[in-house]
Design goal:
The chain has strands at 11-14, 23-27, 31-35, 41-46, 49-54, 61-62, 75-79, 85-90, 97-102, 108-110, 119-123, 129-136, 139-148, 154-156, 164-169, 175-180, 183-188, 195-199, 201-205, 211-216, 223-228, 236-237. By secondary structure, it is mainly β. It folds into 2 domains: 1-117, TolB, C-terminal domain (Neuraminidase); 124-240, Neuraminidase (6 Propeller), CATH 2.120.10.
Length: 240
């Protein structure tokens, strides 16, 4: 949040699904928050440092693992569906890539034990595949990829020459939402049936099968949150 008004300072917030009952969890600049499956914790990145806290802001815990890395900046954390692990990325060249920690922040390593360079990882609900975006190495734009637990079969899901970002699984693992050049899209988990459903960024698939995302408000004066059905219907604005 970037509104610096006294009643709406920069910080990490939670609201109910209708956009009401806004509550400041932690003041400051905190990004890419993700809920734990039990709804009791939030994990997020603050200046490249992973942290987690209870939804009331208590029990703030800082990740101190992976001390062997030369550059320790971690982004885009996400809880696995069983609540046992948190996945995240490190963006620094061949020493970075996709990593995980257990939920207590006391054990960490590379996802699947492999040096896979990518951003914004999200493990499938069944734990069999990791979803992420990457560019470079002959790929002109950021594209969405899928990798199975063996590390043998990497599949490129998008080939649309857009800056594709924010891949996220549906709760049943059958669909994926993502954004590319301000276009919000969905597709089957194997990359088929790619459909644009509107304009937006940073989608997140909710437990009630709706997609939460950010986009400009009606007069383009600021960024707000919206909710939309996977078929592009029932769009509503939830923050003002």
């Amino acid at each position: 949040m970037y509104d610096t008004a006294k009643n709406y300072p920069n910080g990490l917030y939670i609201i109910d699904k209708n956009g009401n009952n806004r509550k400041l969890v932690l003041a400051g600049f905190h990004f890419s928050p993700a809920w734990s499956p039990d709804g009791q914790w939030l994990v997020f990145s603050s200046g490249g440092t992973l942290q987690k806290c209870k939804i009331d802001g208590s029990q703030l815990t800082v990740f101190t693992g992976l001390s062997q890395l030369k550059y320790r900046e971690f982004y885009y954390p996400d809880w696995t569906s069983d609540g046992k692990h948190i996945v995240f990325d490190n963006p620094f060249g061949n020493i970075g890539g996709l990593f995980y920690s257990n939920s207590d922040f006391n054990s960490a390593g590379r996802i699947f034990g492999l040096e896979v360079f990518g951003r914004e990882p999200e493990l499938s609900p069944n734990g069999n595949n990791i979803l992420y975006r990457r560019g470079g190495a002959g790929i002109e734009h950021n594209e969405i990829f899928l990798l199975d637990t063996t590390g043998v079969k990497e599949i490129q899901l998008t080939k649309n020459k857009r800056d594709n970002r924010g891949p996220t699984w549906s709760q049943d693992g059958l669909w994926i939402a993502w954004s590319g050049d301000l276009r919000l899209s969905v597709m089957n988990a194997n990359g088929d049936n790619q459909i644009e459903i509107g304009f937006g960024n940073d989608p997140s698939w909710s437990i009630n099968n709706e997609i939460v995302y950010s986009h400009a408000n009606a007069n383009y004066s600021k960024e707000v949150l919206y909710v939309i059905s996977p078929d592009g219907k029932n769009k509503r604005q939830v923050t003002q």
